[in-house]
Amino acid sequence: MNKTLHYRAxxxxxxxxxxxxxxxxxxxxxxxxxxxxxxxxxxxxxGHICPKAVALQDIQNDPDRLRVPHKRVGDDWQAxxxxxxxxxxxxxxxxxxxxxxxxxxxxxxxNPSVHNYGLMTHSNYFLGLLKTRNRFSAxxxxxxxxxxxxxxxxxxxxLLPIPDIDHTDFMLILGGNPLASNGSIMTVxxxxxxxxxxxxxxxxxxxxxxxxxETAAIADQHVFxxxxxxxxxxxxxxxxxxxxxxxxxxxxxxxxxxxxREAIAPFTxxxxxxxxxxxARVIRQLARDFAAADKAxxxxxxxxSTQRFGTLCHWLIQLINLVSGNLxxxxxxxxxxxxVDLVATTAGGHFNAWxxxxxxxxxxxxxxxxxxxxxxMLVAGEGxxxxxxxxxxxxxxSTPNGQQVERALSSLEFxxxxxxxxxxxxxxxxxxxxxxxALENDHYDTTFNLLAVxxxxxxNRAILPKPQGALHDWEIFVGLAKAFAAxxxxxxxxxxxxxxxxxxxxxxxxxxxxxxxNLSVETLAQHPHGVDLGPLRPNLATRLKTASxxxxxxxxxxLDDLQRLAEQLPADRDQLLLIGRRHVRSNNSWMHNYHxxxxxxxxxxxxxxxxxxxxxxxxxxxxxxxxxxxxxxxxEVQACTDMMPGVISLPHGFGHARAGVRMDIASSQAGASVNxxxxxxxxxAVSGNAALNGVAVQVVAA
Length: 702
Prior knowledge:
By secondary structure, the protein is α/β, with parallel strands linked by helices. It is built from 27 helices and 28 strands.
């Protein structure tokens, strides 16, 4: 029996933690994983590891994971060959487009699409051949407002300033819980130690959240806020910076600040306090504390993205950092300089070049908001969607009004899924194509290095060999593309393996040929613990992609939305508002089929303040019925003083007990899907991003 140590990074979440993986070569069983631990020599994560990384072993050995193509035959599934699968998919998709037009085929790409470089490099090799405008992804139930804000202000949707957490003195966090998410649009392993280091150097961490989250529990200050009130708070903070002369002039080239100053003048702390549920004195003091800090940064994430003013929130966050002198400043918000630089090598994006057929929602970067997907399938007429391709996604559990999504999926003529499982969504597919597992393929993080709190680089080689008869995800897309191109007589461009693409990107990047690092796939192979490329540095002025090469502080699309905020009425104090929440063991639905992640205390309950329970004559632990405009669910309620009165919380990704799901551990988990309550009509008006937080609900005994 031979034991071998391997080093690579986990790519199941944004933290990209370095791992030490031990394999055992057994005569009977072959090469198997015997242990997964944090790599103390990793240049970035410093030995930190979270439960997801350990679960890589469970994913590898999961008997529920598909390993060959499966075709639906009645109510059952039949294993077929890759050749037959590619031909079947191409014939079906081509026939539907011939009968109903190119837009009759829709595409949905899930969150794992950015966690696997084969999906990043090659998915469009096939999907691009479809030439459909009905492209959707998990972006529009997550961070779309951040991309749109950066596109409008800085000229590129990936030019995202990141908190310089290791050098700041004051970190203001809104709608984020990095202790549970391991960052999120902020690649930051070992985040708890980094936050505590701010406090250790006499700095301050402030968390604004309707729930006293895990991150809020270790913060210096926690401020409760009414869900959806973040734009009111942020506008009042910016107003205070202007009105009290707390601006700190910087050297960045900026257009439109005078427009912003004039537009924000009515949004005083006193006017906004009723909308956010925070006393005006607290708002003003928060602005003063932020301005007084030598180095400060304002950071907003999921909670401020997935609400009715998501884009306005992220615009205000950028302006608070800018006006206070903390944008593009050490200890403030800085842009990365990644080894493979997507900002330098890709177009900045486009916005509202077309709209969804039924609801008229705007596209961004070639994708429509996923809240419109079910309508496009269900509403008859020219351009109706008759077929769907899903890629590593589970929209039944991940997008608003999941029950409507289920009805839409059942109405399709054909559905193709590239996925490892028969889950809540893929059970409706006619064909499922599974790729190799994470440990059986190479990986390079083009996305999360772009969002990292330090410039780093590493190339991860596969730990286990590709099983006989299996295909990597990029090979699946090449096979589909060849079959579709042969039928449609469309030209097919030559391609290369992802590793070759990354090698070219590394060599042509800022640390490539001619630099001190001379990065390539070959040189990275000599550094199994990764390469530290140095701390973030001010660079925004030189990386701007706007036509004027200046920051656009007052984009008309966002500035006009201030009027909608001004017309808001204070929330009804008797109305319960629903928010989501994350847990480090259950961020996403895929995490519920692994014993290492679901063991321990249950995490599916509805959290509710004891006063709200008493007002409705409900008891802790009771089963309750929660209802919204779109539907209702039943779930166990748990009394929780960490909740703001009037606010309840249900986690994302549960609700697996559906007929046809073949994920044994997940199906045995209690809990209901929060997206059976979220409303596809409740959106951020600017971007069309789903407003998953602040949903009005009623709670009664079940």
